[in-house]
Write a structure and sequence with these properties.
The complex is a heterodimer.
Chain A lengths: L2 E3 L4 E5 L4 E3 L2 E3 L5 E7 L6 E5 L10 E2 L10 E3 L8 E8 L8 E2 L3 E6 L1
Parallel strand pairs in A: 2-11
Antiparallel strand pairs in A: 1-4, 3-8, 5-6, 5-9, 7-8, 9-10, 9-11
Chain B lengths: L4 E3 L2 E4 L5 E6 L6 E7 L6 E7 L2 E4 L8 E4 L6 E5 L8 E8 L9 E2 L3 E5 L1
Parallel strand pairs in B: 2-11
Antiparallel strand pairs in B: 1-3, 3-8, 4-5, 4-9, 5-6, 7-8, 9-10, 9-11
Classes of the chains: A mainly beta, B mainly beta.
């Protein structure tokens, strides 16, 4: 079965501290993985996707197939990073369906 | 920047009543998705359209939920009768021509409260 697990409901860090939001997935094939973010009072939006190997707003995520993980990292957290973060998996390349984790609230304290 | 439009933003309805949500995807986007997000959980796909055809409705409670996209543009999701457990955020999303794994654009959602 396809599943995405985000073990932390809340991650609280101080401004300038490193951030790592954990995501583990369960899928037997080659997954496509994404991070979505929802800032307060805004719509859910795509942050980054693993196929692009991009860095958005200082965030990066590396797919580790051996550990079935796709953790989101940022070396120095900013207050404006405070938001809800969702990891998502697309395992069926011909449909685009996304399976989401339960989300992690990132709180960056001044 | 093009957006996915949804209405209404909020809806309060009584148990056993009918309720409908509307979604207008980004112009030219052939694929449209309806997701349900229960408080404290991630979004879960209810139904996916490719143009006017249903691609996946395996998680749609078909005894009470229905969805249509008659002309392959905007879409309506209906619940009849609503139950207390249907209280959730209903999100619509769209993506460019054909199924894609490049991520897609979400609307602001409709927050449904069933009382």
């Amino acid at each position: 079965a396809q599943r995405v697990t985000q073990p932390e409901k809340l991650l609280s860090v101080f401004k300038g501290a490193p951030v790592e939001l954990k995501c583990n997935y369960s899928y037997s094939g080659s997954p496509e993985l994404f991070w979505y973010v929802q800032y307060s009072r805004q719509r859910l939006q795509l942050l980054l996707r693993h196929i692009s190997r991009e860095s958005i707003k200082g965030f990066t995520a590396d797919l580790n197939k051996g550990e079935t993980s796709f953790h989101l990292k940022k070396p120095f957290a900013q207050e404006e990073d405070s938001a809800m973060y969702y990891c998502a998996l697309s395992g069926l390349s011909n449909t685009g369906k996304l399976i989401f984790g339960q989300g992690t609230t990132l709180q960056v304290k001044p | 920047e093009a957006e996915v439009a949804q209405s209404p933003r909020y809806k309060i309805t009584e148990k056993s009543q009918a309720v409908a949500f509307w979604c207008d995807p980004i112009s030219g986007h052939a694929t449209l998705y309806w997701y349900r997000q229960i408080l404290g959980q991630g979004p879960e796909l209810l139904v996916q359209f490719q143009d006017e055809s249903v691609v996946d409705d395996s998680q749609l409670p078909k005894d009470r939920f229905s969805a249509e996209r008659l002309k392959g543009v905007d879409s309506t999701l209906k619940i009849q009768p609503a139950e207390l457990g249907d209280s959730a955020m209903y999100l619509c999303a769209s993506s460019p021509t054909g199924p894609t794994n490049y991520g897609y654009t979400f609307g602001s959602g409709t927050r449904l409260t069933v009382v």
